[in-house]
Specification:
The chain is α/β, with parallel strands linked by helices. The chain has helices at residues 2-11, 49-61, 83-100, 113-123, 140-147, 164-185, 202-210, 230-236, 244-256, 267-283, and strands at 16-19, 22-25, 30-36, 66-70, 106-109, 127-130, 150-154, 190-193, 223-224, 261-264. The chain has one domain: Dihydropteroate synthase-like (TIM Barrel, Alpha-Beta Barrel).
Length: 284
């Protein structure tokens, strides 16, 4: 166990990603701030130009390293807008983000390859964050390769295993196979996301968190997105809006296990968490 813990401490200093021709170092973990340009997000939504502008400004002031813009809610039971509506929302949101900071590193939260093309070509988006892992749009992997952008590969498939070792072994096999496919297509900058909350039971989410350092076997940057998710508020018997404290606790666990990117709703608190855990790691 101690060997795995020490490996997690050392792995976080190994990576950088190419974002629009510039290297973003992950030697110190970074924060990806969520901007939901949608009326039906499970926790915070930023519908409307002024709400998007204010949230963008606040996140940049609080030290967001990456802005993750999405226009299609992924909450349980959601109904996805059609492609035309998703593009309309994103054009409005990305125009505002670029007005506030033309040089910002922007990630696009979408599972549609044509939406990815539009946002990269029109707004210079540098990262595609696909919660489906290329499953819902079979052209996504090829499109990311053609666009030459970084890609967040999310695990989003059911696993029947309920004990730690078999579950993690299957998770690694499935993610490893997708990573190999992306490499074969020429995708160089891949970030792996184990997909907390996607096709996983509450207990399976905690299997992943408990064994998070195992994912360093993929030798790729690791993104953790657990902000205000049901694995927190259902376990604690609270609402999503009350889950900031639980979010920070699990961010701390993830950082101590070597997470490189935190995808969050509250940037300031996440940056504080990184500062404190980094200090602890440097003293170990």
């Amino acid at each position: 166990m101690r060997g795995n813990f020490l490996r997690a401490l050392h792995t976080a200093s190994l990576f950088s990603i190419n974002v629009g021709g510039k290297l973003l170092s992950l030697e110190t973990p970074v924060v990806m701030g969520v901007i939901n340009a949608t009326p039906d997000s499970f926790y915070v939504h930023d519908e409307g130009a002024e709400a998007i502008r204010l949230r963008t400004m606040q996140m940049l002031r609080d030290g967001a390293d990456i802005l993750d813009v999405g226009a299609c809610s992924t909450r349980p039971g959601y109904t996805a807008p059609d492609e035309k509506e998703e593009m309309r929302r994103l054009r409005e949101a990305l125009k505002i983000v670029r007005q506030e900071n033309p040089q910002a590193i922007v990630s696009l939260d979408t599972f549609r390859s044509d939406v990815a093309k539009m946002c990269v070509r029109e707004f210079g988006v540098q990262i595609i964050n696909d919660i489906s892992g290329g499953v819902w749009d079979k052209n996504m992997f090829k499109t990311v390769a053609e666009l030459g952008v970084a890609y967040v590969l999310t695990h989003n498939a059911p696993i029947s295993e309920t004990s730690d070792a078999p579950f993690m072994a299957q998770l690694l096999r499935e993610m490893g196979s997708m990573v190999e496919e992306l490499h074969d297509l020429g995708v160089c900058d891949i970030i792996v996301d184990p997909g907390f909350g996607f096709n996983k039971t509450l207990d399976q989410n905690y299997i992943v968190m408990h064994n998070l350092e195992v994912l360093h076997e993929l030798n790729l940057p690791l993104l953790v997105g657990i902000s205000h998710k049901s694995m927190i508020y259902k376990l604690l018997g609270i609402t999503p809006g009350e889950a900031l404290n639980g979010t920070t606790v699990l961010h701390t666990v993830a950082l101590m296990k070597g997470a490189h990117i935190l995808r969050v709703h509250e940037v300031k608190e996440a940056q504080e968490c990184i500062a404190l855990t980094s200090k602890v790691k440097n003293k170990l």
